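Quick one:
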Amino acid sequence: MMKIVVKSVDFHADTKLVAYIEQKLSRLNRYFDKMIQADVHLKLQDTGGRVREKLVEIRLGIPGNDLIDKKSGKTFETAASAAIEALKRQIVRHKEKTSMHGRGVEPTIIDQE
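Output:
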């Protein structure tokens, strides 16, 4: 089971948002079940307009590596969904690399009599 830590910078994230992010992140276990921790940072970014851009940065701790993605959007939900989707692709690529790494051609043994 992966530990999920959600931190909001300069504001208080409501429980519905935290639950949404935790639910989305827990689905990543379907693709890779060895994840250790997910650190989620939620920030409000000033773009000069009236509406502040929502920034979501997620760091997934997996054995031997960390996968990181950062997305921004009009809402935290859309930014989080986009970041988690990108992390899903990174996980699939990581699994493909690691599964191919240990597979060489098996040596053939020839009986010599």
